[in-house]
Amino acid sequence: MNKSLILGSLLATSLLSSSTALAAMDNIDISGFGSIVAGQTLSSGDVFTADWHDVGQYEDGLSFKPESMLAIQARSQLTDKLSFTALLSAKGTDDFEPEFDWYYLTYQASDNLTLMAGRRAIPMYYFSEFIEVGFAYPWVRPPANLYWWQIQYFNGLHASYDFTLGDYSSNITAFYGNERDDDNKEIGVLYSRGADRIREYWEEITGFTWSLSGDIFDLRFMHFSTATERTYIYESLGTNGLRDRDIDFYGLGGSLTLDNLAMFFDYNYVSSNIVGEFSLDPVTNMARQARVNNDDIFPTVLLTATYTIGDYVPYISYSKADHRQRQFDINSGNILPRAPGQDSDDYEQHELYSLGIRYNYTPNVAIKFQFDMFKDQGFAPQGWNFHGDSETITAGLDFVF
Amino acid sequence: MKNLILVTSLLISAAASAEVAVIVHPSNANALDKTAITRIYTGKAKSFPDGKQAVPVNQADGGTTDEFNKSVLNKSTSQLRAYWSKLIFTGKGAPPKVVSSEAEVIELVSSNPNIIGYVDSASVNDSVKVVAKF
Questions:
Q1: Measured between CB atoms, which of B45, B78, B85 is closest to A33?
Q2: pTM
Q3: Percent helix, strand, coil in chain B (nearest 5)?
Q4: Which end of chain A is more exposed for a tag (fewer CB within 10 A), N or C?
Q5: Contacts of B90 in chain A (CB under 8 A)
Q6: Which residues lie closer than 8 Å to A346 by C-beta, 6 or more apart?
């Protein structure tokens, strides 16, 4: 048995047993969630990235590793206004090595104002803040190709204000923080440019979300910006590549429920401006600045419809992710000619069609079967279609406790 | 002795009515419709229309609770669980406390003006005030 798996389960067990003793004290709540998921692609050689951030990928042999996971949350009420929450999670794609996904202090300043400080998910896309809680959404996972950002959590401050707008409930949350990842897994596996290690820093993450909800609908608008710095570390060459990029995120998403039919949509527009890209000369150790500046945009869209028939919820989903880039000469500001054969600015592009069914087995357990068809439309001459098409089946069991 | 009488009358009348009564302290003069009750029970409203703090209590899954979830909140128990999971695991809320019996709901409601609860309408006595029936 895998050593990490033993360590992971020992840690989880000791956490559970010591927390059971602690839970006897009234002010500690233990809860958690988990997923047992198995899947495979249907054709030899096809790879489907179901989890971009943690790089959970299915290949043509059945595997439980890409998406199975267990998470335990402990919440301790320290005073009547102050609480501390921590979540320890163990993911199959990381060999079930437990790590703290989040830990933060919550201060209930008033009935309407909540302040939080610590490590939490970036309130990015509609499902970002609870992306790991399979039980909370219809599919096996929120459409994979949209949740493709390499940074998901950050350390910072949140201020959340609840209010009403007429008949509707509303909330505005502002946040600020940063994240420094010295060994980014997603870039390291999928976009490494041959580097041994990627350092991905997102600084000055500043933004807000505004949400509005009524009886049959809810709407969420998001905007944040961050100054990022990526270092491509080539250990054997003793040189690094650096890229400084300011990124702006915008999103509008929501849901509409009409009797048994529920629809979700999420449109996100991300634009980034490379402030500087250069490599270090291995001999002189001086930066050699690149001559180009890139303007990238990443528009993505999600549309899902679910229909509830008693305990069964069939669903159908479409998501498209796009990456387009224009290059400019850094000195003149002139737009540079496109690569040979490239009609548009398309770089990476893919569409995902999903069909599945969720069965509410008990109020705590949901069973899901899903078929995913991934169409890679990346610009082939420059190798942007590196994901490749795939057809995948996954079956999962999600639970909460 | 009071509890024994209550439990016995509950057992006798349980079959007679599947109606759910939403109850508050007798001094609570708020008028509450389905929307207002739903807002309180889904954590979207933390106070009654008159501004006083509202503390909802649930019962365990089954019987009265399933009926309440279906007729008032318009969600199945699974849907409600998914809704609360989203809030619990983003640190944005916690579901109402669960108490173990109809008797306990009545006990709490009758002794605290901030509490709102639901019981089988046959369990209602004059220590509580009924704001709505479903």
A1: B85
A2: 0.85
A3: 40, 20, 40
A4: N
A5: 121, 129-130
A6: A322, A323, A324, A377, A378, A379, A384
